[in-house]
Amino acid sequence: MDSKVHLLKLNLAKLVRSNAKVNDSFFIVSVITISLFTLWDLSPAAAKPLCYNKVCVFDGDTISYGEERIRIANIDAPEISGAKCDAEKRLGLVAKNRLYILLKAGRLKIVRGDPIDGRKVDRYKRTLATILVNKKDVGEILIDEQLARPWSGKREPWCSTLKWQKNKPV
Fold first, then answer.
1. Are residues 67 and 114 in the same domain?
2. Beta carbons within 8 Å of 143's beta carbon, 6+ residues apart
């Protein structure tokens, strides 16, 4: 595992030194995603929240800020604990880790309320909000990087859309 981490760090360092442009972001995210697929543990411990300061990331669309549990209103990210197939769980872990990296990258702003219908909380009593970091919508970033999709008003299955990955049940 340590050699894989070292190799990943070297590859990422090369990408950074190559002055990759915004247009290359899909390539960069693809390299990171493929690398992380080989590194991440799918054990129950891997589903624990990632925390820094007052922020904890539970999955690709759920965080907490202090005591407040927040659901990112404008996206649907793959499930981790409720995943229907291995591919969904893996992509859910990638989305969770990417969200953690995005949130740590700058100034966090929480815009409470669903931007479409104005609801303040979801059925699980989580605050609905758009999350901005350095004035950029992290939900839109996750969608652009194909780690989430726009919220359609209900959860949609992921396994049938992840055909490139072996879809064995979890």
1. yes
2. 75, 149, 150
pLDDT band of residue 152 (cuts 50, 70, 90) is confident
Residues 31 and 65 reside in one and the same domain: no
Q: H or E stretch including 51?
A: strand 50-52
Whether 54 and 32 share a structural domain: no
> pTM for this structure?
0.72
Torsion sign, CA atoms 103, 109, 112, 113: negative
Instruction: Measure the CA–CA gap between 58 and 122, rounded to whole angstroms.
Output: 16
pLDDT tens, residue by residue, 105-116: 999 999 999 998
Task: Indicate whether 63 and 26 sit together in one domain.
Answer: no
Distances (CA, A) of 111 to 116, 118, 121, 167: 13, 11, 13, 36
- Total residues found in the chain within this entry: 170
